[in-house]
Amino acid sequence: MKAYIKTFGCQMNEHDTERMYDILVNLGYAHSPNETEADLIILNSCSVRDKSEHKVFSHIGSLKELKEENPNLLIGVGGCVAEQEGSQILQRMKHVDFVFGTHNIDKLEELVSNAQRGYSSTSITGFRNDFKFLSNYNYRTPKISEFITITSGCNKYCTFCIVPYVRGKEISRDFQEILNVCRELVSKGTREIHLIGQNVNSYTYQENRKKYVFADLLRAIADIDGVDRIRFTTSHPRDLTDALIDCFRTEEKLASHLHLPVQCGSNRVLKKMIRNYTKETYVEKVARLREARSDIALTSDIIVGFPTETEEEFEETLDLIREIKYYDLFSFIYSKRKGTRAAAIEETYTQAQKFNRLYRLHGIQNEITTTLHKEYEGKRFDVLVEGFSKKDDKKYEGRTSTNKVVHFFSDASLKGKTVPVRITKAQKHFLEGEVICQ
Ligand code: SAH
Ligand code: F3S
User: 300 in helix, strand or coil?
Assistant: First the structure.
């Protein structure tokens, strides 16, 4: 039997998908290369924006035909849309066999077994006090760079965001358990640990009388032999503490990249979003970060067209991105999410006006990205070699500490090693380079 999981959305979902495969492989399923050959299809859904939710529903709809051709096919829906809509998905889409929310991935075994036995469709949602971080990394060999989830959920309740409602309150994973997972991965060849969480830098774990914060975790991971690099996403500017900034000064294994979503450059809008920082405090933290780590590459998320955002306020966002000079930007048109506080604020613009703002933002960012990219040419960077390039299978690829993908000729002996590479050409989305012989 073969299983296929289609993932929508963020890195948290990508990682959850892998833990689902771990469970399915234990149940005897092999990894299917596509949906048509699969005996079980799971959609791991995303509801962060209206468009993401639509994509999920239209994809579920498109599976109806496959189910008609093969009545033994099992279809499950997990992730954020599943958490939000629960059994309504089963009512709307009769060809779905089971639905499971974000806290119930460990119920997958039971759900699949019941569906195999022909039990009627079931939905398991709701947040649990006994939520567990799944630890298996068994269904495939660990890669050079691996994700580890260290927090689940979010307590920030930014007024535009659905995440706290579909992922639950913030939970931090056991400190020692994270270190054990790191040690296990390193023993299997992993060299880069990428910590993930919706709000990763608010990690706090209390054990007996000792309280561990995120900076403690970074330092403890850096102390593990065999860990060469550490990354983490996504950070909230509010939780960017002095201790964390100091880690960039002292911990050489910490990569020189920080994704620090600012969302917008107007203090009035930031207040409406309840982001709990101002443009000035954000800029000040960025200055301190750069003082601690001069080559740090910053990236960010921006929302355009938040309800009531004026033209002047949008221009403040443009000024801010010119000032900070992000390496890359993920920009989104505001999307009204049912149940969030911003949904009650009347929207004053047409979609065309929002697109216009997005377009102008892209134009400015493209110029910044191109200029920063060009500056790589001719320079030397330490690259952690991850394996064959996804674009060109004659070449290898790896990333600079600043998170830029580099393609170069190499051989298998360099996989997992950090090697000096001279950048020969900056393409739009990646760099080309050559390994400098040592
Ligand atoms: N801390 C999270 C944020 C999740 S949402 C993380 O792990 O990345 C990712 C980004 O989507 C946010 O930073 C925000 O820019 C954008 N976003 C969230 N809700 C949105 C909405 N309702 N409309 C448009 N963009 C949104
Ligand atoms: Fe969403 Fe804000 Fe949390 S963007 S994930 S509510 S930090």
Answer: strand
For residue 15, give both structure tokens: 């990682």
Would you say domain 2-124 falls under CATH 3.40.50.12160?
yes
Say yes or no: CB of residue 164 within 6 Å of ligand 2. Answer: yes
Amino acid, res. 174: D
Establish whether residue 263 lines the binding site of ligand 2, counting it when its CB lies within 6 angstroms of any ligand atom.
no
> What is the per-residue pLDDT across 185-208, written as a single tens digit (0 to 9) for each?
999 999 999 999 999 999 999 998
> Of the residues 11, 155, 156, 201, which should be mutated to test ligand 2's pocket, given the most ligand atoms within 8 Å of the CB?
156
Instruction: Say whether pLDDT at 438 is over 80.
Output: no
Q: Are 151 and 130 in contact, with CB atoms under 8 Å apart?
A: no
Query: Cβ(421)–Cβ(433) under 8 Å?
Result: yes
Q: What is the pLDDT of residue 393?
A: 82
Domain 380-435's class?
A: mainly beta
Beta-bridge partners for 75: 41
- How remote is the CA of residue 234 from the centroid of ligand 1, in Å? 10
pLDDT score of 213 more than 90? yes
Residues 6+ apart with CB under 8 A from 119: none
Our mutation pick for probing the ligand 1 site, out of 301, 321, 354, counting the most ligand atoms within 8 A of Cβ, is 301
Q: In the chain, what are the helix, strand and coil shares in percent, each to the nearest 5?
A: 40, 25, 40
For residue range 423-432, list pLDDT tens digits in order.
999 998 899 9
Comparing C-alpha atoms, which of 332, 337, 328, 135 is closest to residue 233? 328
Q: Classify burial at 281, counting beta carbons within 10 Å of its beta carbon; exposed 0-12, middle 13-18, buried 19 or more.
A: middle
Domain ranges in the chain are: 2-124, 145-374, 380-435
In this structure, which amino acid lies at residue 352? A
Ligand positioned closest to the Cα atom of 164 = 2
Please name which ligand lies nearest the alpha carbon of 345: 1
| Ligand 1 atom, smallest distance to 156 CA | 1
Q: Kindly state the tokens that stand for 345.
A: 């604020």
Ligand 2 pocket, residue 288 CB under 6 Å = no
Question: Ligand 1 atom closest to Cα of 12?
Answer: 7
Q: How many helices (H) and strands (E) does the chain have?
A: 14, 21
Q: Are residues 433 and 383 in contact, defined by beta-carbon separation less than 8 angstroms?
A: yes
Ligand 2 contacts CB of residue 5 (under 6 A): no
CA distance 254 to 15: 21
For domain 145-374, give the CATH number.
3.80.30.20
User: Nearest residue CA, atom 21 of ligand 1?
Assistant: 335
Which residue CA neighbors atom 6 of ligand 1 most closely? 198
